[in-house]
Amino acid sequence: MFSSVLLRDKSDLVGVENIIPNAHVVGAMEKSDHISVEDIKVISTKFTKVGKTMLERYPNLQWVVHRAHGTDGINLELCEKYGVGVVTTSPHTEACATWIKDRLVYGNTIIFGNGSISKRVQEIIDEWYLIEGLEYSVVNSSVKVINLNNHYKNVVSCVPLNDETENMFNYELFKNVNDMNFVSISRDKTHNNKDLLKLIKENKFKKLYIDTLGTEHREELIDTGIVDYTKHTAWVSEKDDLLELKTIIQDCLADDVTNPILERRKNVFFQF
User: Fold this and answer.
1) Which residues constitute the domain of residue 167?
2) E strands along 9-147, which residues?
3) pTM of the full structure
4) How far is the C-alpha of 169 from the C-alpha of 209, rounded, in Å?
């Protein structure tokens, strides 16, 4: 059943051969010359970019299943032109939400982003906050209306990387806080490292837990002693993630996908 499926980037696919048998599994740096390109209908990626090269290489490709919460690395415009549908999984939601919860300090919390991980965090802390009489707020996107101050003890970032969220966590956002606890699972470019370093020197933070940290000023931030950089390991692959992936791939093969990022366009008779 899965012989028409290509799984790229196998670092998070331990044991996948038992869950999705007969699928082709290829590491990020491995060649796939032994695979018949005409047979592939579904490709799943985590790190590999999907653009013109891949879309032209696999002429019968129907769906891209991206094992991430965002779509950076996927050229949606080209996928649409080629009639290829795109769907994302919700990998490691439970693990990431637990990782966030375990790093919160006692106090009111503001959560940036309202995707699957954010919603799971809200579910986990609901009972705790109701019992303790604390509160949390959720912000979907724009930070222009947010006036962060010492009412909040935790700032959580679950936002995807896009034009609106790039450099979102900067000096302007945090300038009026003290002893803030910052927990982020967002992409590195959502953090302005130069500003974070300045804020640390001004004692604005109590602790920063950052799962993905860009190279600029990284070592200086770590050397402050209050930045806990987990090197993109807040996600811990679980069997449930592979089962979810299997279900989505089955839906793709049946051409019955729920809530795709991009619908597959059938009967595309031309190439670009």
Assistant:
1) 93-229
2) 24-26, 42-45, 63-66, 85-88, 109-112, 136-139
3) 0.64
4) 13
